[in-house]
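Course assignment 3, question 2. Fill in each field.
Student: A.L.
Task: Predict the tertiary structure for the chain below.
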Amino acid sequence: MTEEIRTPEVEILPPEKRRWSRKLIIGSVAVAIAAGAGAYAYASNDGWGGRQKFMRGYMEYRLDQMLTEAGASDDQKSKVKTIVTTTIDEVRPEREARMAMRDEIIKLIEAPTIDRNAIESLRAKQMAQFEERSKAIAKAVVDAAEVLTPDQRKKLVEEMKDFAPHGRW
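Answer field:
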């Protein structure tokens, strides 16, 4: 009498079924790192102002990396960094201005009756400010591009494609 040997049945999932756990782990690590960086920035110096310094430092570091990969000289890097940091300072609204706008929005939506004209006026004001900032950013992009050679610009664009998820920035 021959006994049949049975092996336990193991369900092997296709790769797409197993990937969710890997993505979950990677996502959790990314969230933990971001939370740690945020906590560090908040704890340093002046609360969320520290976060802004942290983010600005990272932006400057990443810009330097991309310019190095593009083959920019130290002089070119200095010029582009000056253009970028000056423009950021120019277009970023001050905290007080952002808070004033926020307070104005809150007043408008808390009011017993909605003032459509006031909301439209606020929207138009914000769009005019956005238009000015957009022009400054476009000018900075052109100014920075003129500092680099066509080959360097091409390399910079390739580096920018690889910077963000899914090859988009």
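Instructor remarks: The two ends are 70 Å apart (CA to CA). Residues 73-147 form one domain.
Grade: pending
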